[in-house]
Amino acid sequence: MNRSTPIIAQTESGLDPKDWAQTRELAHLALDRVLDYQEGIAQKPVWRPIPERVDTFLQGEAPLQGLGSEQVVAEIFEHVLAYPAGHAHPRFWGWVCGTGTPIGMMADMMAAGVNASAGTFNDAPSRVEFQVIRWMRDLFHFPETASGIITSGASVANLIGLAVGRDAKLGEKVRRGGLHQVSGTPRVYASAQVHGSVDKAMMMLGLGLENLRKIEVDDAMRIRIDALAAAIEEDRKAGYSPIAVVGNAGTVNHGAIDDLPNLAQLCKEQGLWFHIDGAVGALAYMSEEVRPLLQGLERADSLAFDFHKWLYVPYEAGCILIRDGKAHRRAFSVAAGYLESPPRGVGAMPDSSNNRGPQLSRGFKALKVWAQIREYGMETLGRVQTQNVAQIRYLAERIEAEPRLRQMGPSPLNIICFRYLPESPEPTLSDQINREILMRLQEQGIAVPSSTRVDGYFCLRVANTNHRSRRGDFDALVTAVAAIGEQVERDTAN
Ligand SMILES: *Cc1c(COP(=O)(O)O)cnc(C)c1O
Asked: Which residue(s) pair with 405 in the sheet?
């Protein structure tokens, strides 16, 4: 802006309502409508296709003149909240999506109400986040010197974990001078079932997609440790520089859990950073029944997990724990005059989240996690996780008992894949029929599984991180898949 440009405010006014009483009424109405939605959700279709009028409305231009809060709230209900993907519904089991809770919603609303940016200020929100990180540190038996940060999800948690691992293994020279400072291309290892966010982390960290070596899995979809050890040895001989292994605590396709204690041991012997992607499974450590399956989590150098998946917290909230808190801060600290932390006052924040991750300004996601854990307690949350695993075992039995359905791959945790077996075993036709079944299930609003490929076959995939599901919901799924399958076959034959 040119100094000579005159800027004259005619009258001063901000963005607050002129009539607070009216705003209050509108806010209460909005809250009631959203609670109505949650309370009555089981009676609604899981998902509805977006009508054209909504599509058109949502392509309009930004208004120059304001429309007022009443109209905007009405628009949100009519055009937006009426057509969600359906994550909160008891028969939503697609991808790995959480369900959300009323307390989580309230916490998010309150956090927005005071417009808190957590982690960089001397305030209670920053302390809440530290408390959640300490709770997680204790849950997973990490040492007191461990560090962590709440993230948008496990994608960013994986990125941070591998960034710290990269710097811890390759040293300050890489942090300062870049990757070309090292002799021997750095390599990272994971099973062939590893999540795509790890591929993305490799790209973003400059390590390169091709240097994520994907190791074959056994019948249980767990990384083959003998093959991993052989790959590391082979790479060393060829002049590569192995730096890290990513273990899975719940693969995205099947919920398979790698042999974490033996991976930890191998990393220790080989001097490698041991990162665990626990986006799906780690938080089921709260379940007494599931915990034994997750042994070895405590030994990770960095552990990524998601509150918005199997802790049912509303989007979005994930976390990374780093065993070596100093290495964590070293990887993200930069000096900036405008961010100096004075000994007292609002800026007195010696352990700023700015030094523990890529973000500076951050929302107060910690509050909904904190509130959820305090409302229910870890035992109750663990009990619902146990219930989810039991429901998947029940669904496996129902699939087994249905002659036209077949389970595909293992289901050790809360995820199961299966397909409808048409009369004709022709694979392309079979895939086509199963894809059609999936789309009709969703379009008819019956249930939302997603899909994946197992042994090359298109399969329906049910990931159960849903505290609202009951056995009857899985009965309804089995009945619908069988019935729609027959219908699709008839339609295809005609
Ligand atoms: C969902 C998922 C991720 C990514 O987590 P976001 O929270 O979606 O960013 C990573 N790994 C696995 C195994 C996942 O299921």
From this structure: 420
